[in-house]
Amino acid sequence: MLRVMVLGAYGSAGRAVVSSLAALDEVDLVAGGRRASPLEGLAAQVDKLHTVVVDAHDRQSLHRALTDVDVVINCIGPYIGNGLHIIEAAVDAHTHYVDLASEQEHLRRALRFGDAARAAGVTVLVGAGAYPGLSGLLLQTLLAAMPDATRAELALITAHPREGEAGPAQVESGLLELGYPHQALVGGRLEARFPGSRRAFDFGGGFQRRTLMEWPQLEVIWAGLHTDLTEMSTWVCLDGQPPTPRWLLRAVSWLGLHRPTRRSAWLRQLVLRTRLRPETEQERAVVGQGALFASVAGPGGERTLIATIDDVAWATAWLPTQLVRTWSRGALPAGVRTPMDVLSASEQLHAFRAAPGVRVAER
Questions:
Q1: Hey, is 30 helix, strand or coil?
Q2: Structural domains in the chain plus CATH codes
C-alpha cells in the first residue's frame, strides 16, 4: 500500500486532493497542516484519514513528517515561497513529490534538483493541476495529431469559486511572480514577455466569448525544451475577474511585492481583500466551473480542444490522483519532471473526458 501525504490538506486545493485520493483502496492517506483543529475537522469527514501537524517551514518538522511517506503532494501555494524547500526535504527523505504549481520561476528553481533527485531515485513532478497540468495533456494530444504544428496557445477561464472554496494562493502567486522573469516562446526561443496583453477566446457553453490576460505559464518552458514549436503563449482569467490593466501589473512589479518584507506582505493582503464576487445572472450560472482551451496551428491547418469542467476543484485533483495510481503500479522515472513527461496524454484525456461533469469539444 502506498503511503501518501497531502501538505496543506485543509486548504481549497488540499481538500479536493484528499477527497479524490480517499476513494483509492491502494492508498494509506495522511493529511498534513500547521493547525490541529482543521485537520481534525477534515478527518471527521474522510474515512481512514490519518493526520499529522507539520510546519512546512520548519526543516526538522517537515523531515519528521516525510519519514516513511512514499509520496508527498504539496498543496501549499504560492510555490515560489512554498515549493523549493519542500522539494529539498522530499529528496532528502527519498520521498516522491508532486505539486500544482503554475509559476515559471518555480520550475526553473526545481530543475536544479534534477541530479539530486535522480541520485536519490526520487521523482519530482511539478505542475500537476488543471492549468498547468491537464492543459498540457490537451496540448500533447493535439501535437500528436498534428506533428507539423509550429504555434500553440493554452488558455484557462475559471468562474467565481463556490462558497468556502475561495483561496488567495493563485492571486498571491501572481503578485509574487511579477518580481521574476516571464518567458514566451518566440521564433523558437524562450524570450522575456511581461504579462498583461489581452485577447478574446470563444469557449462556448456558459462562458461564451471572454477576454483573457496573457500570463506565461510553466508549460511554455516545457514546450521550449521538448517540442518543435516556434511560438507559444498562455492566457488566463481567474475567479471571473476582468483582466488586470497592464500598467497596474507594471506598478505592482515596481512596488516589489515579491520581496520578503512586512510592507510587501501588507500590500499583498490589501490586494487580496479586493477580490470580486459574482454579480450577474451569467456569472452565478457558472460558479465553480472552468474551461481549458488548447490550440495548435501549422502548415496543415489548425486544431483546437476545449474542455469545459463543472467543478474546477475536482479537476485540480485529477492529475495527482492519476499519478498516485501510476505509482501504485510501479516506479516513475526519477528526476524533475512534469506530467507531460511521465503520463500518456491520450489515455489520460480518454479517462478525463469520460468523467462526470466534463465535456471536451474539438474544432
A1: strand
A2: 2-129+314-343 (3.40.50.720), 134-312+350-362 (3.30.360.10)
In this predicted structure, which of 4-8, 19-23, 172-176, 301-305 has the lowest mean pLDDT? Answer: 172-176
- Give the 3-state secondary structure percentages of the chain, helix then strand then coil, rounded to 5: 40, 25, 35
Q: 1 in helix, strand or coil?
A: coil
Share above pLDDT 70 across residues of the chain, in percent, rounded to a whole number: 89
> Hey, what amino acid is at 117?
A
**pLDDT tens, residue by residue, 92-145:** 999 999 999 999 999 999 999 999 999 999 999 999 999 999 999 999 999 999
The Cα–Cα gap between 157 and 131 comes to 10
312 CB-side CA count, 13 A:
25
CB 78 within 8 A of CB 72: no
Cα–Cα distance between 113 and 117 in angstroms, integer?
A: 6
> How far out from the chain centre does Cα 69 lie?
22
Specify the amino acid at residue 238. Answer: L
* 122 contacts 337 by C-beta, under 8 angstroms: no
Helix axes 12-21, 318-329, angle to 10 degrees: 40
Strands 27-33 and 2-7: parallel
For 104, 221, 232, 269, the CA distances from 227, given in Å and listed in that order, are: 17, 10, 11, 39
Read out DSSP for 79-120?
Answer: HHHHTHHHHHHHHHTT-EEEE----HHHHHHHGGGHHHHHHH
Q: Cell triple for residue 110?
A: 526545481
- Ordered DSSP codes for 129-179: BTTTBHHHHHHHHHHHH-TT--EEEEEEEE-PPPTTT--SHHHHHHHHHTT
Q: Mapping DSSP to helix (H, G, I), strand (E, B) and coil, where does residue 194 land?
A: coil
Q: Measuring CA to CA, how many Å separate 232 from each of 42, 209, 223, 292? A: 41, 21, 8, 16
Cβ atoms within 10 Å of 299's Cβ, excluding its own: 8
On whether the CB atoms of residues 70 and 95 are closer than 8 A, the answer is yes
- For the segment 313-359, what is each residue's pLDDT rounded down to a tens digit? 999 999 999 999 999 998 899 999 999 999 999 899 899 999 999 99
Helices and strands (H and E) in the chain: how many: 17, 16
